[in-house]
Amino acid sequence: MFKKYVADLRHEFRGYNGRKLSQDLMSGLTVAAVALPLALAFGVSSGADAASGLITAIVAGLLIGAFSGASYQISGPTGAMTAILLSLSTRYGLEGVFTAGVLSGAILILAAVFKIGKLVSYIPGPVITGFTSGIAIIIALGQIDNFFGTASTGDSAVKKLLSYGSTGFSPQLQTMLFGLIAIAVMVFYPKKLNAKFPSSLAAIIIALIVQLILGLDVAEVGAIPKTLFPEHRLQLSQIDFANIKHLISPAVSIAALGMIESLLCGASAGKMKNEKLDAQRELVAQGIGNMIIPFFGGVPATAAIARTSVAIKSGGHTRLVSVFHSATLVASMFLLGPVMSRIPLSALAGVLMVTAWRMNDWSSIKNMFSKKLKNSGEQFFITMAATVVFDLTTAIVIGVVLSMLIFIVKSCELSVCVSDVDSRRLSKAGHDLAVPLENTKLVYLTGPLFFGTQDKLTAVLGELDDADSIVFSMRGVPMIDDSAIAELEMLFDRYTDEGVSIMFSGVQERVKNTMRRAGFVDNVGEDSFCWDAVSAISLLEKKYA
C-alpha cells in the first residue's frame, strides 16, 4: 500500500508547476470559505463547541487529506456525523465522543485490512437515500433549542422533541431573529454568487454584523482558543477503560458512517475528476485521522462531498488543496477568533437547518414517488424511520435486510400461463398441423420452481379438466429443487395414468442436470424432453396421427 501511495504521489505531482500551485492555493481558499461556517456549526451540533469543529476541519484536512486514497478528497466534520455524536455526547460527555472517535479509527483501519469497504456497494440506493434523510431530520430536530432559544431534555433527538410536552416550549424572538436571517440569506442567495462566495458564510457574516450592532442578549459561540491544543481534548490518562464496552456500538456506527460517506464521496467525486479512489488507502487515512483528531480536541471526521466537489470545481489539482484549506482555517482561528466568538448560535442553527434540507437527495426521492416505485419507497421510509428512532448502523441493517427480502420475494415469483395451440402462429413459423390438437395445452413457466412455488403450478393444473396432452415450456425456469421435482413426478404419474401425454420443452441444461441427478429424467424418459414447444407439438402430432 505504501509503495502504491508513493507511486500515486509521483503521478499526481508529475508536471507540477507554479500555475498549478496557485490554482491549488485559490481552490484551498475557496474550500475554506465553505468549510468555516460548517465547521463551526457542526462542532456545536455535535455536542462540543465551535472550536472543536474548527480543529476537526484543520487536523482532518492535514492528516486525512495528505494520506487520502485520491487527490481530491476533503475531510472534516459533517452533518451526518453530528446525528450520532449529539446523542453520544449527551450520554457519555465529550470524553465519550473522543474515545469513541479513537475506537472508530481503529475499526476503519481493520475495515481496510479486511477490505470490508466493498460491502458499501451492496447497500441499495433507496437505503442510502433513506438514512441520509433520516440524518437530515435528526440534524434539524437537534437545532430546535439553538434556533428558538428553548431548552429540552433527553439523550436523542426524538426524546428531546417529546420533552417539550413536559418542559414547555417558549421561543425567544430575539434568538429566532438570527436563525431566520441565516435561513433567508441561504434560501434567497443568488446561485451565481454562491460559487464564488458561499451562502452559508454570507449568512453567518450578516448575522454577526447584526449582533455586533445590536448586541442582543442571545447565546453566542463563545471564546475560540488560539491553540490547536485546547483544554478539552482527549488524554490517555482520561480514558475510562471500564466504560469502553459501552462505546463499542457507537464507535461501530461512527466507523460505518465514515466508511459509507467517504467511499460514496470518493466514487461520486472520482467521476467528476476522472480519477479512481483507492478505497483501502482512504479507509486507512480516515482511520489514522480519527485516531489522532480527539487528542487535539476534535470530533470524528469523514470525507465531505460538498467541500470535495467545491475543490474540484474550483480548479484544484492535488491534495495540497486540503492542506491549504486547513492552513486558511488555522489563520482564521488565530486572526478572527475574537470576532467569530460573537456569532449567535441561532444563526449556526439556521445554517444547519438549511443544510439538513439540502442534504436530502430530492431528485431520487422525486423519482421514487413520481414513478410509483413501491418497493424503493418502502425501503426509503423504513430506513429513514429507523435512522431517527434507532441509530445509523441499525437503520442500515434494517434497510439492507428489507431490500434482500423484497428481492428474494420478487425473484421467487413463479408465473404460470396456460394457452391452447395456436395453429396460425405455427403456420407463420413454417409448421402446419397435420392433425388438430384441440385439447393440447401449453403451460408456460417463468421463475424458479421450488418448494415455495410448486403449489401454484399444482393449483393451475388442477383447473385443466379436458386436456389430452400437456406441454410444459420451461425455458424461463432458471432453477428447480428436489421438492418441485417430486411434485412434477407426481403430476406426471397422475396424468399418465389418466391417459394424458406430458412433454417438457426448453428445459435449461442446469435444470435438466438437477432433474437427471434426482432420477426424474430416467423415470419419465428422455423422449419426453424436446428443444422447444414446436418440436414437442410435432411429436404429439405423430402420436395422434
Number of strands: 7
Number of helices: 24
Please give the share of residues in helix: 55-70%
Q: Strands of the largest sheet, in order across it?
A: 3-4-5-6-7
Rg of Cα set: 32 Å
| Structural class by helix and strand composition | mainly alpha
Residue-averaged pLDDT, rounded? 90
Strand percentage lies at 5-15%
Query: What is the approximate shape?
Result: elongated
Poorly predicted runs are none
Distance between the termini: 75 Å
Report the sheet with the most strands, covering strand number, pairing sense and barrel closure: 5 strands, mixed
Descriptive report:
The protein contains 24 helices and 7 strands. The protein is mainly alpha-helical. The strands form 2 sheets. It has a 5-stranded mixed beta sheet. A two-stranded antiparallel sheet has the order 1-2. Helix 3 (50-67) runs antiparallel to helix 14 (320-340) and helix 5 packs antiparallel against helix 15.
